[in-house]
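User: For a reading group we're discussing how well predicted structures match intuition. Take HTH luxR-type domain-containing protein. Before you show the prediction, I'll give you the sequence so everyone sees exactly what went in.
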Amino acid sequence: MDTLRADVVQDIRFARSTDGVGIAYAVHGSGPPLLIDACWLSHLQFDWESPVWRHYLVELGKIATVIRYDERGHGLSDRGVTDHSLDARVADLEAVVEDAGLDRFALMAMAQGGPVAIEYAARHPDRPTRLAFYGSYSGAHAAATPEDLEMYAAFEALIRVGWARPTSEFRRVFSSMMIPDGTEEQMRWIDDLQQRACDAETAVISRSQRQTQDSTWRLPELDLPTLVIHSREDHMNEFHHARALASQIRGARLVGLDSSNHIVLADEPAWPVFMREMTAFLQPDRAVARPVVDSDDVASLVSPRELDILRLAAAGFDNDAIAAELFLSVRTVERHLQNVYAKLGLSGRTARTAAVARLLSTS
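Assistant: Thanks. Here is the predicted 3D structure of HTH luxR-type domain-containing protein, as structure tokens, for the group to look at:
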């Protein structure tokens, strides 16, 4: 485990996708589950120390149990991967959902995660409770101009030439587009993240395959609460992508942030707006996950398998004994218990005791 603050801990786990690729994901926070289909430029451990991402991890963890993962070929996930197709990326998300033992959850697509989240929600309409897009799109080339296509080609050339260089002048082009208002420290962190996230070959291959992925045709199929939040002067993914998403998803709400940063920074006025919108958007899920007062309510909130595990815990079984009794792995038992705690609004070292006490209090 790694600590961000004394009271914030992330648990790093690994799922296995359908083609055998290992996908690293991390869980932290408390409350209803929020699965983040993050941007490709990520590294679960490196992000944890970040002057750019730290405030997201801390603040979102206060209102939700946050599950985020490194894309295939990136971060702590398996490297050297050449298949970055939409189907492969959706399979990765499905693998994380199943490995984490998620049933219903809010889904948030950041940046290049848009097509994947859209496709997942269309294929599994009974799983996401709500869908949020942040700085994202349904297709990278949707409404792309000839000038845009020329720029994409120039970016690929920059990656080939400058990604692996020990100095960061080529990578700084991308950093300055992501956070044009960032400090030098924040810029240097994004410079370094690019090399830590993946090698140059993976950056080129994954980028070229993502550019062809477009889930726009799926948007009319979506029927769930949707929030589209986007910086109005985003230099990486322009605001017209947000308008397109909101206009084609029934009932979607569009929120424009007064920022030029693709990643809104902690000290700019747009940040509290982002958190206010996300908190309000997740509130219905938080209401469902509020602590319950009797065993019938516990039974209605947790799955039958989770209830079996909780009853054995109440009988004094430890995780090893529960696993043996139910023919599960200890890891699976631990994940089911984490889901129980999230549904009951519990966290910390006393979560197990509190969950058992709540079950026993009216049984």
